Amino acid sequence: MLDEPPSHSFGAKERGVHVLHVDDEAMVRDLVRIYLERHGADCAVRSVTSAAEALELLEQEQFDCIVSDYRMPDMDGIEFLERVRETNPEVPFILFTGQGSEEVASRAIERGVTDYLQKGEAERLELLWNRIDHAVEHYRRRRELSGEARKFRAVFDRSSDAMLLADEVGRYVDVNDAACDLFGVPREELLGRTAIDFAPPEFDFETAWRQFRSSDGEEGEFPLVRPDGETIMLEYSAVPDVVPGLNLSVLRPVESEDDSDEDAEDAGAA
């Protein structure tokens, strides 16, 4: 006789794998739950009998992965997948079915299934756990990267320093407001241009760019020639491939001795 389902407090394990399993066959539900919870690393399984029940549960709880049968009464696995993708476009969804075919697999892929696996011998449960583990790892990594990207975006947009992202050939593909003010041109005119458009005539852009791309990063000074003819000496810090294919430059005007004296006087007066 199969073990009774253990009582779980979902969400209590910070890095545990929380799986929602949908199958209308009780024997399959029990086999999957028992195997995954015994062999999966810190895995907890919530089993339900229908897609409708699963959709209600998804409104109340979060899961790291959904595993669903295909042929079920009222709503099949692909219809369920479509409903899930309306509100959960990225959560791993594995179709685990005994009624598979190339047509079913093709339809599932078109609708955003993460993986497709047919039921079978006991080793298929080991393969199922491997697929779940792999999918959840990638899902969490994407979410972490997305969070880091949001933090970077906030710093980029709000920085008082000029910040510019250039592509692999040095064309500016993103700039913040401080960069537009420093260069003296609106954003739409700055995008698509390179450092050579704001450099003295003797500046060898191709050599400088090649050296920069082969480095771990550079710091130094650079004379910026604005469209109005004014030349501003800048301090710069640049990092190649801050994300693959994008190169970050951070610029600020070099503080002159007069500025330093004024700052010292202001501090003394304060």
From TrEMBL:
<feature type="compositionally biased region" description="Acidic residues">
    <location>
        <begin position="256"/>
        <end position="270"/>
    </location>
</feature>
<dbReference type="InterPro" id="IPR035965">
    <property type="entry name" value="PAS-like_dom_sf"/>
</dbReference>
<dbReference type="InterPro" id="IPR001789">
    <property type="entry name" value="Sig_transdc_resp-reg_receiver"/>
</dbReference>
<protein>
    <submittedName>
        <fullName>Response regulator</fullName>
    </submittedName>
</protein>
<feature type="domain" description="Response regulatory">
    <location>
        <begin position="18"/>
        <end position="134"/>
    </location>
</feature>
<dbReference type="Pfam" id="PF00072">
    <property type="entry name" value="Response_reg"/>
</dbReference>
<feature type="domain" description="PAS">
    <location>
        <begin position="148"/>
        <end position="202"/>
    </location>
</feature>
<feature type="modified residue" description="4-aspartylphosphate">
    <location>
        <position position="69"/>
    </location>
</feature>
<dbReference type="InterPro" id="IPR013767">
    <property type="entry name" value="PAS_fold"/>
</dbReference>
<dbReference type="Pfam" id="PF00989">
    <property type="entry name" value="PAS"/>
</dbReference>
<dbReference type="InterPro" id="IPR000014">
    <property type="entry name" value="PAS"/>
</dbReference>
<dbReference type="GO" id="GO:0000160">
    <property type="term" value="P:phosphorelay signal transduction system"/>
</dbReference>
<keyword id="KW-0597">Phosphoprotein</keyword>
<dbReference type="InterPro" id="IPR050595">
    <property type="entry name" value="Bact_response_regulator"/>
</dbReference>
<dbReference type="InterPro" id="IPR011006">
    <property type="entry name" value="CheY-like_superfamily"/>
</dbReference>
<feature type="region of interest" description="Disordered">
    <location>
        <begin position="251"/>
        <end position="270"/>
    </location>
</feature>
